[in-house]
Specification:
The protein contains two helices and three strands, in the order βββαα. With 73 residues, it is an alpha+beta fold. It has a domain of 41 residues. It has a three-stranded antiparallel β-sheet with strand order 1-2-3, with helices on one face.
């Protein structure tokens, strides 16, 4: 089963780590460590999906893949 891709990176400008899920518009989180940031974005993902279901909004299928994975097929 495919799951949503998570981008996680350190923001020198903002100081904390940032994570987002490109397939889920505006689904982002931040934290002091990479692990905390991923935990937080997983919480944000669950909340995003819950609200979409409650509101009857479309839930996109996991599609985003960085270029490195696209090369492998």
């Amino acid at each position: 089963m495919k799951d949503y891709h998570i981008n996680a990176f350190y923001s020198a400008e903002d100081k904390p780590y940032i994570a987002d899920i490109p397939d889920l518009k505006f689904c982002t989180a931040h934290g002091e460590t990479p692990e905390e940031t991923v935990r937080e974005v997983m919480i944000a993902k669950a909340a995003w999906l819950e609200v979409a279901r409650e509101e009857g909004l479309p839930i996109p299928k996991p599609r985003y893949r960085p270029a490195i994975y696209q090369l492998r097929g």
